[in-house]
Amino acid sequence: MKMFIGELVALSMMAFALGMDAFSVALGMGLFRLQLKQIFYIGIMIGLFHIIMPFLGMFLGRFLSYQFGSIASYIGGALLLLLGIQMIVTSFKKESDRFVSPMGIGLIFFAFSVSLDSFSVGLSLGIYGVRILLTILLFGFFSTVLTWMGLMLGRHFQQWLGAYSEALGGSILLAFGLKLLFSF
């Protein structure tokens, strides 16, 4: 039970970190005065992609772990480390550079682009053999809720919190990457 709680906390922190990326993008998107129905669909779509993408990543990660053994663990840690650094660096870019229309096919591309990070994290987690269902449900839940929060708060806080939220998420992933790389 103690091990499950530890895994739940660690996975929740990762899910939160990935959700912060969606939150920061949603803050910027919230400036466009979306209707509540649109906000609902955007959150659901991003949540679904944060379930699908890490699932695909975990599937591939387990395959790589089986094929390459212990070296795959170092690859997983390095991926998290690089992903964290990338999130921190891009957090200082303008949000408008990443905006895609949140309607129709644009919403699908938007959700896909926001959830690409979760594929890489899923790949790393698949190498380590985490609980798949727990992981993808946490990723989907956190990203959906944080997207909704970002969209709702966007008008008020985008200028102040936007870059910092993604930087916080990147810092958490970077820390997990370091932990995985240097745990002997």
Structure description:
There is one protein chain. The protein has one domain. Helix content is 84%, strand content 0%. The chain is built from five helices and no strands. The longest helix has 50 residues, at 132-181. It is globular and about 50 Å long.
Cα-to-Cα separation, first versus last residue = 23 Å
The string of secondary-structure elements, in order, is HHHHH
The overall average pLDDT, rounded, is 79
What's the number of structural domains?
Answer: 1
Shape: globular
Helix content estimate: over 70%
Pfam families: Mntp
Keywords: Cell membrane, Ion transport, Manganese, Membrane, Transmembrane, Transmembrane helix, Transport
Subcellular location: Cell membrane
Membrane topology: Multi-pass membrane protein
List the helices and strands and how they pair.
Elements: H1 2-29, H2 36-68, H3 71-90, H4 105-128, H5 132-181
Could you provide a short overview of the structure?
This protein is mainly α and 184 residues long. The protein is built from five helices and no strands. One of its GO terms (cellular component) is plasma membrane.
List keywords for this structure.
5 helices; mainly alpha; 184 residues; single chain; globular
